[in-house]
Amino acid sequence: MIGEQKVLFSGMQATGNLTLGNYLGALQNWVSLSEEYMTFYSVVDLHSITVRQDPAELRSRARKLLTLYIAAGLDPKKNCIYYQSHVSGHAELAWILNCFTYMGELNRMTQFKDKAAKHADNINAGLFTYPVLMAADILLYQADVVPVGKDQQQHLELTRNVAQRFNAIYGDVFTIPEAYIGKTGASIKSLQDPAKKMSKSDENPNASIYLMDDPDTIIRKFKRAVTDSEAQILYRDEQPGIKNLIDIYSACTQKGVEDVVREFDGKGYGEFKLAVGEAVVSVLKPLQERFAQISRDKDYLDGIIRENAQKAEYYATKTLRKVQKKVGFPERVH
Ligand code: TYM
How far apart are CA 301 and CA 299, in angstroms? Predict the structure, then answer.
């Protein structure tokens, strides 16, 4: 809470090409929730360097991601859209919270285990303490709600634990945040292997729908999507490929899963896959058009970046000063 207002915080990494999973699992909910809350949406570039990045590319992707937030329908005059690296409080609070987080807790994080396996040559300390930085992001703005996909749930639990631990020692410093996980779209799977999540870093381009894919590519990828030989469109774990397609269709059309199953009762997989592809195109095409339009307006974007960094900094500093005082750092002399 900030004053009487409930706060929403979320963020996304500017690494790799964003996928339909990022959109349906997070961005789409950000937009639908934005009216109800005071919102902070960060491009989390500090998190990105836990994996080696090309500097020019990171800068360019970060700007594209910020533009995409706006293209998705977040009005940057009402929603605080900003770069994490422009607000030094994230790193400062992360340091303090590091001292309230146990190695054992971080060792249990499944994302760390996955990433360490993928980047065996660069298992750096930042990768290990990544969830603490994430906790700092959220707690810095006293967030009540954090819309994320299912893969971030464990990090949210850790955030709550660290916040509760801190509050138990120092009093009510942090708001305890709740994860908001959408009913459909919270865990979009790979189109080539529905046991895995759809991921920016998948090597097989047919496994993921990228937000900038053109309509023909999207339709082609859905035609090739791995399904099964059951020949019936049912929402059940035994048919993970079909289940994933139903989730995607449902999240894109806002129709309930049961309605989708009824709509395609008795229809063939070919017809269903085409319908899913078309539903995705009808969501992504307008997004791409708005993205192209906003990208052209450099001065507008620069203004947004400047103003929102100041706004984020203001609220971040308020929490940070309170925390610094609580832990016993000497007061500033003005
Ligand atoms: P990131 O950048 O990997 O993903 C951004 C958001 O997209 C969701 N997501 C998915 N949802 C459904 N199906 C999928 N296949 C899928 N893939 C990704 C993620 O759950 C996420 O919500 N650590 C975060 C970024 C972060 C953050 C934060 C999020 C940093 N600080 C504070 C919330 C609050 C991450 O790497 O997300």
Answer: 5
